[in-house]
Amino acid sequence: MPHSEPAIHPPRGHLATDVEDRLRFLAQVLEAVRDSVIFTDLEGRITYWNGGAEEVFGYTAEEMLGETPAVLYPTAAGSLAMDLQAIMAGQPYVGTWEGRRKDGSVVWVDVKTTLVRDAAGAPIGFLGLAKDATDRKRAEDALLRSERRYRQVSQASREALWEWDLATGSVEWSPGAETILGYAPGAMSANGTLWPEQIHPEDRERALAGLNAAVAATAPAWSDEYRVRRKDGTYAVVSDRAYIERDVEGRAIRVVGALADVTQRKQAEEHYRQTDRLDAVGRLAGGIAHDLNNMLQSILGWAGFLSRRFDADSPGAEEVARIREAAGRSAKLTQQLLAFARRDMVRPQRLDLNTAVLGAVTLFRPLLRADIELSVRLAPDLTPVLADRSRMEQVVVNLALNARDAMPTGGRLAIETGSVTLDEFYIERHGNVAIRPGRYVMLAVSDTGYGMDRATLDRVFEPFYTTKPVGQGTGLGLASVYGSVKQAGGLVWAYSEPGLGTVLKVYLPESLTGIE
Question: Is 195 within 8 Å of 188 (Cβ atoms)?
């Protein structure tokens, strides 16, 4: 079916009866168009160039008639030829091209090119319309660059960035969500309830209520710290900060936030507080124990002097002996307190920790029940440590007996030694800035007992603190361990969970030279 050219009629009242008038009117219309209108013949030569084309590209009609559009699109000459072939096949082209103005500057244009046919339907050329899209293209490119930078920053950041669109309710997450929480950003974004559900039940109401209150009010920002469950089931402490974007009327339309994992910092702060508390208790206990020890020594001295006045079988001798026995037990308790406070006398020497462990095993093995399985694994060729042998033996004995008491129905007790390297990260995480990074000898004592909760674990090294019934423990065993290890320049660390047993690790600095 032949194509027919749509008629272009002049305004009513204008008498255009011949072809020349019609063409003259059409030319005036095209010249008034601000966009570029270009007509080329089938060989690609420009036969028409309107004023809009001159405004867009900077070339006059005299300069462009007889030229090809390749002058305008030097970077797209190959694709231009292919596009013209497609247009010849009846497929109009619509797209955005990068062009060059006469002065060499870049101009981006939205192009629409169609095949033009005569009244009989035969192709006679191509009509190209081009609209200046430079400003829009620059804005799009700027947006793309901004989005690319945002993605790069999101990927490089150790924080999880999130954006909450209040109109749609959708929340988008950056790749940092997977680093902190273990969930892929897509999973977090697709399931809008996943994040609130992961907040610790004790923190959830407070955190969400605070965020919603900030959004509902006129607050420009919101922040909070709370616990959130990772994909592996463990909890992280996070610091969440958000900026609230509002419209001209003050209504919140968008919230952009950043989630940072502060678990290690919070753990270090807690360890610092615990260390400070133990040091304060140690100073108090040390002062009391020192004065009490002096008085007990006086009691023991007078009791010994008094005992010489009685015969061995007299009633008075038995009473004095009870006084001496009670005073002696009290003196041992004060020695444990002084060990915790690190104020008693020690005789440090270069010591193979394995030797101290074997000596301690000899002391406590008879005290273990038959339902407790003992395992001792000693690393060969340990570097010596600088410590008091009797104190280190007592450390092992105290740890072993505590493990025994934590397994009333039996279990496994394991003692292990080895050489390790402690870096700054580990020392800071465990809250001990008094020791330096380097090589250490490790003593680990673990059991399969009932374990301890967080509150108990925080106080486990405090003197007189015990979970045993009244009369079954003084609460000084682990306190003296803490003092002896600190006095040797080391670190003691405990890990435990209810029902999963306990691990206590002692780290003593290697000694390449020292007192023999």
Answer: yes
